[in-house]
TrEMBL record:
Superkingdom of this protein's organism: Bacteria
GO molecular function, one term: acyltransferase activity
Keywords, ordered alphabetically: Acyltransferase, Transferase
Keyword Cell inner membrane in annotation: no
Species this protein is from: Pseudoalteromonas viridis
Protein's recorded name: GNAT family N-acetyltransferase
Coiled-coil stretches noted in the UniProt entry, renumbered to this chain: none
Cited InterPro entries: Acyl_CoA_acyltransferase (IPR016181), GNAT_dom (IPR000182)
PROSITE patterns hit by this protein: GNAT
Classification via SUPFAM superfamilies: Acyl-CoA N-acyltransferases (Nat) (SSF55729)
Organism lineage string: Bacteria, Pseudomonadati, Pseudomonadota, Gammaproteobacteria, Alteromonadales
Annotated N-acetyltransferase domain residues: 1-168
Record-listed E.C. numbers: 2.3.1.-
Amino acid sequence: MSILPLDPSHYPAVIELGNLVHGENYLDLDGIKMMHKLGTQHGLNASFVAIDESNQVVGFRTSYSAGQWPIDKWCSPALWPVDEQHMAYFKCIAIHPDAQGQGIGPRLLKASVEVLKQQGAKAGVSHLWQQSPGNGAVKYFTKAGGKLIKVHDDRWLDLTLYEGYRCTLCDTECHCQAAEMVLEF
């Protein structure tokens, strides 16, 4: 298993994997291009892919550099342990169902954290899917040292109603909760 920086040659496989894991219309070409751009600062890319022995993308993590991402109504900066200028954002992770449980997620997170620190970030925040099978997303991030800040209801509702996203649980009207969690570096 190789962990490599995300590059444009990975986009088609990342889009396919993101939509498989997170639901139809979760990712598209414009979206992954934007994620890649927001995660690159000072010539350093904080987004990564996991490539298996057959050269297939089996996982990815996109992360945004501190100071380069929009802080929206789903963020609670007053509760964060560092100021907004030093807070990165862990945007997305997806591991192919056949590759889950092999430690790929932690390896991708570690690679992103190392680059984010080099870029000047002191912590990262994420919105984790509370309804993931067995609450695996929150468990994984907690095991990595993440701390729960706040739970947000209907985090992805607007995406399903207005942008065509189809939640794997709720279909076209998502009422899943997001756990806003912070990982200090």
